[in-house]
Design brief:
With about 280 residues, the protein is mainly α. The protein has twelve helices and no strands. It has helices spanning about 25-30, 30-35, 50-75, 80-105, 110-115, 130-140, 155-165, 170-180, 200-210, 215-250, 260-265, 275-280. The longest helix has about 30 residues, at about 215-250. The radius of gyration is 23 Å and the shape is globular. The chain starts with about 25 loop residues before the first helix and ends with a helix. About 25% of the residues are buried.
């Protein structure tokens, strides 16, 4: 029988560093005092903690999503597709986390939400400036969505910059043209703040790629990364709708929207229409 051996140096919990009077600790690095002190219930209702934490965690995931999405857009613009693929894959994984966050909030029942709803006043997720930037960077441009941020000039400037910049899909289309594909000129330089309309010439360029994937492999992979991203984004929106309907039914939203009816309209938004349509036309 083998004799028991001592754990390698450093594996013994008793040898772990425990004095942080002069050194940075885990909590210091993550600023946990600030993070964990940010959950202030206004109603006193037990379930308000769930509502606050779920939305704060979602905003943190959105912060990381924007960090990756902005870098991915820059990489596509610079023809660095391998870097972009890594970042876009991470964006899709982050969206999966946002989808599952609704599973936790869905455990809140209508009476539980009603007990805390007055504490929200007119605040609403509709006013999330990070979510608006995500939509703008993905190409869903709507100038009216700038107004909820007009009371904060610092945030408005960031949202306006995202609204005025080429979206991820705009940069993908410009990349097709740089690779020699027949993209209409009006798709390459335009008012980036204006909503895009589906374009037959853009679809034809994507069709060249999809009809010969081996010859255009990285562009083909880009198209599929965009599909993964929009597929997960649709799930995120859908889970939002179903959770809201489950908790408040068809009441108006605290921010003044029609609630579920408004959210259902958002399900019809298509970010990358030509890549969806080519599946029928192949």
């Amino acid at each position: 029988m083998a004799e028991p051996t001592a754990p390698p140096p450093g594996d013994d919990p008793a040898s772990a560093k425990v004095d942080f009077s002069r050194d940075m600790s885990y909590g210091d690095y993550l600023h946990l005092d600030a993070v964990l002190g940010a959950q202030q219930r206004r109603s006193g209702a037990h379930d308000e903690m769930l509502f606050i934490v779920q939305h704060q965690v979602s905003e943190l995931w959105m912060k990381l999503l924007l960090h990756e999405l902005e870098a991915a857009i820059a990489a596509v613009s610079a023809d660095q597709l391998q870097r972009a693929f890594k970042m876009l894959a991470r964006v899709s994984k982050i969206m999966e986390q946002l989808v599952h966050a609704w599973d936790v909030l869905a455990t809140m029942t209508p009476p539980e939400y009603s007990a805390m709803r007055p504490s929200l006043a007119s605040s609403s997720g509709f006013q999330s400036w990070q979510y608006r930037m995500i939509e703008f960077r993905l190409g869903n441009k709507n100038a009216a969505m700038l107004k909820p941020h007009s009371h904060r000039p610092d945030l408005l400037a960031q949202v306006q910059a995202a609204h005025a910049a080429p979206s991820l899909y705009d940069e993908a289309i410009r990349l097709l043209a740089r690779r020699g594909l027949p993209v209409p000129a009006d798709q390459l330089e335009r008012d980036w703040s204006a909503p895009r309309e589906p374009n037959e010439g853009v679809e034809q360029a994507w069709l060249v790629v999809y009809r010969d994937p081996e010859a255009w492999w990285d562009l083909y992979q880009l198209g599929e990364e965009l599909m993964d991203l929009e597929d997960t984004f649709r799930l995120w929106r859908f889970r939002h709708v179903t959770t809201v309907e489950r908790v408040i039914g068809f009441k108006r939203g605290t921010g003044g929207t029609s609630g579920v009816s408004y959210l259902r309209k958002m399900l019809d938004v298509v970010l990358f229409p030509e890549i969806w349509k080519l599946r029928t036309d192949l």
